[in-house]
Structure formats: C-alpha cells, structure tokens
Write a structure and sequence with these properties.
Layout lengths: L3 E6 L3 H15 L4 E6 L3 H4 L16 H8 L5 E5 L12 E4 L8 E4 L14 E3 L3 H10 L4 E3 L5 H24 L1 H10 L6 H9 L15 H6 L3 H7 L9 E5 H6 L8 E3 L14 E5 L2 H11 L2 H17 L7 E8 L2 E9 L6 E9 L3 H40 L1
Parallel strand pairs: 1-2, 1-3, 6-7, 6-8
Antiparallel strand pairs: 3-10, 4-10, 5-8, 5-9, 11-12, 12-13
Helix pairs in contact: 5-9, 6-7, 12-13
C-alpha cells in the first residue's frame, strides 16, 4: 500500500465534503490522502434526469475505473448511487456512520406537505419521490429538477427574490429612474423630475411599505440568496424535495426552511444518507474498514441494498427501502409504487440481525410475489419505451 492514498471523487461541493470526511478519518490513522477530482457520466449530462442516464451508476463507474486503472487507490460515493450488481471487481471497503436518511420539503415559508395549496408545483429529479408525492397529494404538479444541492435551492428561491427586488425598486422610485435613463425621456418629464430628486444628495428615500432601502435589503441576503438573484429559471417551483443528508453535509440545512416528510409515506432510497468507500487492494480495504466502517450502518444498508438488488429495481422503479437497527432486530420498511403513484406494494418487517442479509432476501421475495415484481417490470418497460422514443427523436 502506497504512503499517500489517492482518493477519487466527483468535483461537486457535496462530493468533496463527503470525500473530506473520509480523508479526515484516514488521516486520524496517520494516512496521507490526496483527492483526485473525476468527471463522471452523470456530471457530463447535467440536464438529464437520473433515471434516464442509462445504466445504474452514472455517478459511480468513472470513479471506480480510476481505481481499477491504478490511478487512484480508493473512491468515495453516495451509497444510494452505487449499483447493487456489476460490482464484482470492486469492494465496498467502508461505510461511515450514516447521516439522517429521510427526505425534506423545502419551501420559502417552511410549509409542510399537507399545507401546500392545491396545484402547487413541487420539484424533484427522483422517480421515487415523484411517485410518493403523487400518492400523498395527487393534486400537486410535480416537475423535473436536477443540479447540485445549492443549484436546486437557488432555482426554488430565484423567482420570489427577483420579484421582491422588483417591488422594492418600484416602491423606492429607482425602477422609474432606471427606465428613464434607458429610454432617454424628454427634458422636463416626470421621470426626469424623479431622477433630479434622486441626485439631491439626500439619504435614499425609504418607502413606507419597507423598513429598509433596496441596498440594505440586498446586503442582508445570504450568499445563497444573492446567487439565486442572478439565476434565470424556466420553471417556477413552490417547493422542492431534497435529502436531509445532502443539505446537512452542504451546510445548507439552516439556510432554508425545511419540513421533514413522514417516513411512513416517503420511504427513503436504499442507502440514502450513507457514504460508500470502494477499493480493490486488500491492504487499502483493511485500512479503510478499520478507519471508517460503522457496524450498525453497515447492517442497515446491507438490508436495504439486498432488498433492492433482489427486487431488481435499480433506478428505473419507484422503490423506497429503509432499515434501522433496533437491538436484535432490523426494523425494515419497503414501499414499491407504480410510476404514477396509483398502485403500490408495501410492508414493514423486523428482521433478525444475526441473519439480516438472508432475511432481507426472503422479505424481497415475498414482496415480489405480492405484486412488486409486476410494478417494477411495468416501470422498466415504460423507461425502455421512453428511451426508445427519445432515441428515435435524436435520429430524426
């Protein structure tokens, strides 16, 4: 094993933060770690929804190939992105302690899912979240949303902040002055009079409707809100759904109002909130396992990924799987939905921790026999049809 471990990671802020936690854990064991930023296929197609990126693992394989080629010693991933199959040449060497695994609704005023008005537009790039939203609130309009965590939040905040800025400009008279300057108003016009008043040298006028000037209001905004002010958006969202873990790891959880979605209905993706460190070299695997692996998290995500793998759902079907170690059992909840959210197969079961992997296989088989396999097959067929339609359009 080399003196300095080369750790492959995506270049997004969230990915670098996750890689940083692994680097810090290894550094505490006196191992030097060098981060290698790698662009993945998922990064190369930023406007494509996750489930349309082709094979599972759009954000994973490019990193693992760095390890297989000898250009890196290990790679770090969000575990929910790691395929449950086709990983024979790689080992998940370490799974650090998991962050909160559930989903949250982000709304500018902190509204919960039940409080959203009828017809509200909610953004998500996830098939699972889309189906769960449609089941919980069929009246909502669910629109696609992709991008890094901060990008998604900016897309949500942009229209409201831009409208507020415009209101303040109009109330202060600055908008009329700017219009006069751009339009070259005639001498003596009302606009010229307003502009002359603005140049009197007095302090900026504060409209009765607002307690601060436009400049003071802008200065009070966070860096995230200022970035949102500059963003052009095609779709105006009333709310968006994000993973709580991503918000926390990006240090954005306190930046925006959030409401946790009930886990009974909004069952997280398998592995959500967990990080995976992959490697091939036995010495590296042992070093990672001893430094970062968290036994309870490893058991929980093994149950989740075993069920997902047995159901063969990948990322083409709306499947939520959540496991929590409770004493001698692993409390497990599974929810498989149709893509439109109108049909489902769901159940909860306490699996014995001593045989959790085998029990998870049995649980998955039971769900498949009860109709989950049919829902997944229908979702896969719909995804393949959609891919074929898009391919024909590309050919034309």
């Amino acid at each position: 094993m080399t003196e300095t471990l080369r750790l492959a990671t995506r270049g997004s802020d969230l990915a670098l933060r996750q890689a940083g936690t692994v680097r810090d854990a290894l550094s505490s064991r006196r191992r030097d770690v060098e981060l290698r930023r790698v662009e993945t296929r998922g990064d190369q197609i930023p406007d494509e929804l996750i489930h349309r990126l082709g094979k599972t693992g759009a954000f994973v394989r490019s990193l693992d190939e760095e390890v297989l080629a000898g250009d890196a010693d290990l790679a770090v991933h969000s575990l929910k992105d790691v395929p449950t199959e086709g990983m024979d040449d790689m080992v998940v060497a370490g799974v650090p302690e998991r962050a909160p695994s559930g989903d949250v609704l982000v709304h500018p005023d902190g509204l919960g899912i039940a409080d959203l008005p009828e017809g509200a537009v909610v953004g998500t790039g996830s098939l699972r979240r889309t189906a769960q939203l449609k089941t919980a609130r069929p009246d909502l309009v669910v629109e696609p949303l992709r991008g890094n965590v901060d990008t998604r939040i900016e897309k949500l905040l942009a229209p409201g902040l831009q409208a507020e800025h415009e209101r303040r400009l109009i109330a202060s008279g600055e908008a009329r002055a700017m219009t006069a300057e751009e339009g070259g108003a005639d001498e003596g016009s009302e606009s010229d009079g307003d502009a002359a008043d603005d140049e009197s040298g007095d302090e900026p006028e504060i409209d009765e409707e607002f307690e601060t000037t436009v400049e003071e209001w802008f200065d009070s905004l966070s860096d995230l809100e200022r970035s949102a002010m500059e963003r052009k958006v095609e779709t105006e969202y009333d709310a968006i759904v994000l993973a709580e873990a991503g918000l926390r790891r990006s240090d954005l959880f306190r930046e925006v109002p959030t409401a946790r979605l009930p886990r009974e209905e909004f069952v997280p993706a398998a592995g959500q909130g967990a990080i995976a460190v992959t490697a091939t070299d036995p010495d590296v695997i042992e070093a990672v396992r001893s430094a970062v692996d968290h036994p309870r998290t490893r058991v929980a995500v093994t149950v989740e990924r075993t069920i997902l793998g047995e159901l063969n759902g990948g990322c083409v079907a709306p499947i939520g799987v959540s496991a929590l170690v409770q004493g001698e059992h692993v409390h497990t909840r599974v929810r498989v939905l149709s893509t439109d959210g109108t049909e489902e197969v769901a159940d909860t079961r306490d699996l014995p921790i001593r045989s959790h992997a085998k029990a998870a296989e049995s649980f998955a088989a039971d769900l498949a026999d009860r109709g989950a396999a049919d829902l997944i097959a229908a979702a896969r067929e719909a995804a393949e049809t959609d891919e074929g339609t898009r391919q024909e359009a590309d050919d034309e």
